[in-house]
Amino acid sequence: MKTKPLGWTLGLGILFLAIFYLLVRGPSGAPAGQQPLLALSGANFGEFEKAFDANADIPRLLLLVSPT
Q: How far apart are CA 10 and CA 12, in angstroms?
């Protein structure tokens, strides 16, 4: 029955490393030729509207991810 504690330990270790990697590394960068990523907030919402409306002839996709 040593496999269950070993499995839990490995699973928690991988989860910890993934969270640590995401927190330390932060958001990834944008590809070359694309504007850098922007964290949307109430203070910079106007910048988002300008960027979204800038190329009205090109299809755009907006993905909203909410924790609730």
A: 6
Contacts 24+ apart (CB under 8 A), 32-40: none
Query: What pLDDT, in 10s, does the model give residues 10-33?
Result: 999 999 998 888 888 766 677 888
DSSP assignment string, 25-61: H-SPPPPTTSPPP----STTHHHHHHHHHHTTTS---
pLDDT for position 50: 87
Handedness of CA 53, 55, 56, 58 (dihedral sign): negative
Among 66, 38, 65, residue whose Cα is nearest residue 50: 38
- Euclidean distance between CA atoms 45 and 50, whole angstroms: 9
